[in-house]
Amino acid sequence: MKVLKWVGIVLGSLIGLALVAGVVLYFIGDGSVTASHADETFEASALGTADVERGRYLVEDLIGCSGCHGDDLSGVADLMFEFEGQASPMGVLPAPNLTPNGVGGNMDTDGWVRALRHGVGNDGRGLVIMPSGGFATLSGDDLASIIAYLESLPPAGEPVGGRSISTMGKVALGAGLFPDEYKLAQGVEQVEVPRAATAEYGAYLAGITCFDCFFDLSDWSEEDFRRMVSEGVLPDGSAVDPANPDDNPWENVEEVDIDAMWAYVEAEYGG
């Protein structure tokens, strides 16, 4: 009986600790999604020469913003539902309409900079999932070009609804299962590096596209890597995007960028 008593005490203690940890993580996550940064002052961002076509290439072909914001960037009502095909216990997490019919209609240059480089939406709250931690390194020319392209978008769709993150979602955010892009973006400096087939420029592309985040590239050959980019096929023959096997998100990436990416992979992973 004493053994059972001590087992009960241990289990009760563990459950109590788990509940306390859950409450702490909830409040951390809740603070991340509800805190207002509207009155914060951020370091000035360099804005270089804007090239709308360069901005289109970055948004559509290299970074692939349509993967979350929809083909015409008119937004997605619930990313979790879009990716999983069913409602998520994490809550509702929309990708805003970036055109003038959505948040684009209320954004000026400073607003785009705050969203892209600092992870702050036009409502002053920190953004979730939108990779501002990587975009914080955008060069002056690329940042200006992306903004110019976004400001050139024609109206499309309707405004999407707001986000509603559940208790479970806030616990997950507090535990770091979702990136807190506002925190990741703070104190990150812009990167200025010439566009060339170099590992240095490839590292810059890795930062803004995260092309090396999803696969273990350490044992890939150059042929494997180039096939993934040009055909959307992994070394084992499976599609990069199994849900859309005929869709290659990188099919229009230009050769100089592919060369730079591979130079970075070789330098970083010994490919």
Description:
The chain is mostly helical and 271 residues long. It folds into two domains: 52-164 and 179-185; 199-269, no CATH class. The chain is 48% helix and 1% strand. It is built from twelve helices and two strands. The longest helix has 33 residues, at 2-34. The termini are far apart.
Give a quick summary of the entry.
The chain is mostly helical and 271 residues long. It contains twelve helices and two strands; from the N terminus they run ααααβαααβααααα.
Question: Could you name the key traits of this structure?
Answer:
271 residues; two-stranded antiparallel sheet; mainly alpha; 48% helix; 2 domains; 12 helices; single chain
What fraction of the residues are assigned to beta strands by DSSP? Answer: under 5%
Strand order of the largest sheet: 1-2
Low-confidence stretches: none
Mean pLDDT: 84
Largest sheet: 2 strands, antiparallel
SS summary, helix count:
12
Strand tally is 2
Helix share bin: 40-55%
Order of H and E elements:
HHHHEHHHEHHHHH
Q: What is the overall silhouette?
A: globular
Secondary structure layout:
Layout: H1 2-34, H2 52-62, H3 66-69, H4 79-84, E1 91-92, H5 109-118, H6 132-135, H7 140-152, E2 164-165, H8 167-174, H9 181-185, H10 199-209, H11 222-231, H12 255-269
Antiparallel strand pairs: 1-2
Helix pairs in contact: 1-8, 2-7, 10-12
